Amino acid sequence: MRLLLDECIDRRFARELSCHFVRTVPQMGWATIKNGRLLRLAKKEFDVFVTVDRNLSFQQNLPKIDLAVALLQAKSNRLEDLQPLAIPLLAALDNMKPGKVVVIS
Fold first, then answer.
1. Is the pTM of this model over 0.85?
2. Among 24, 55, 89, 99, fewest CB within 10 Å belongs to which?
């Protein structure tokens, strides 16, 4: 599966997901792009967008964008707070559908 990590997620979190193809928004050269355009770019190359942005589903029409979104709910976006969510995220990936948000907590 092809995963794109939002720029607000510590890039080292990608190591926790090494069984998949993982890139970060900055690695793709998309660091300054706003969410709407970012998601449209992402859907062309990725299956899942991974973020901690709880407002994303309110700000964007995700069913129209047709990209699965994994929303990580952690105490903060620091690596040590995100690492416990790696296993639940990996378990949820097989059931993720484009246009839907899956909350991982």
1. yes
2. 55
